[in-house]
Amino acid sequence: MNGFVMISLSALGLWSAANSVMEEGLEFRMIFSAVLAFFPAMLVMIGIAAFLNGFLPRLTHLVWMYFLYSFFVLYLGNLMQFPN
Is 71 a residue whose pLDDT tops 90? Predict the structure, then answer.
């Protein structure tokens, strides 16, 4: 529930920021559907974190390693021009 609320608030913030600087604003539905594309990935990260915290608390640092790897590949991969 908290993840859905936070991702919805991020969509609202992105929409309001875009509409404040653009002459023809974007539709909220388009922004919300784009943000919802990240919802399954967020649920996977929450699920892995909950599993590791509950069953293998000494391996919780693996969640952060996976998070940093995902960030590096998705956002910085195109910038650094890494091969697929």
Answer: no
